[in-house]
Amino acid sequence: MLTKRIIPCLDIKNGRTVKGINFVDLRDAGDPVELAQRYAREGADELVFLDISATEEERKTLADLVKRVAEKVNIPFTVGGGISSVEDVNKLLYNGADKISINSSAVKNPDLINQLVAKFGSQCIVVAIDAKRIDNSWKVHLVGGKVPTDIDLFEWAKEVEDRGAGEILFTSMDHDGTKNGFANEALAQLSETLNIPIIASGGAGNMDHFADTFTKGKADAALAASVFHFKEIEIIDLKNYLIERNIPMRV
Known about the structure:
alpha/beta, 251 residues, 8-stranded parallel beta barrel, globular
């Protein structure tokens, strides 16, 4: 059985790691380079680095900061935020990213997924989807959750897979930062619909939430931020807890 992955997320704004609730009310969580080093040392399986204001501010991801983080870690490192072209991806991979994550740019130009997969391979391309439950259906949101669309989460996720993306990072905006658990029903539906790995994001508050998203939500990986940033959960303790519940982990 494939091991499940634990992935700390570094949301970056103005060069600092931040964390909010439901995509707003951001507070400082520390220096991204120091946090990345700590997570690599403590046993994280991967890191995700999201420049959360790049798209809204219409600028490119902070490639220099990506380079500084990459120099300090020895685990796979995914970068997202403001990526909209082959050239953007080339620069980030050159600066040390292992994978890249696209979100708003993929919705606006779905063919970008095909282009990036053709150039860099599926294993390198993650498509992030931020969605919110509206009138009993999940709708995709863009620009850091600020712009709603009529696009259905499950239809879009299937198209993303069909276009060759290697992985989906699904964030429930309703659950983000609430520490009430992941959106396991939606995650399970995604898992049943798709054949590519799904990273669960939004809602981690305790160790049970991680166990639930791997069992009930059928997620392949679980991403979290504040519970790790503020040392509410230690990664090694979490992995041991999950192993005791017969959830396969790399330690």
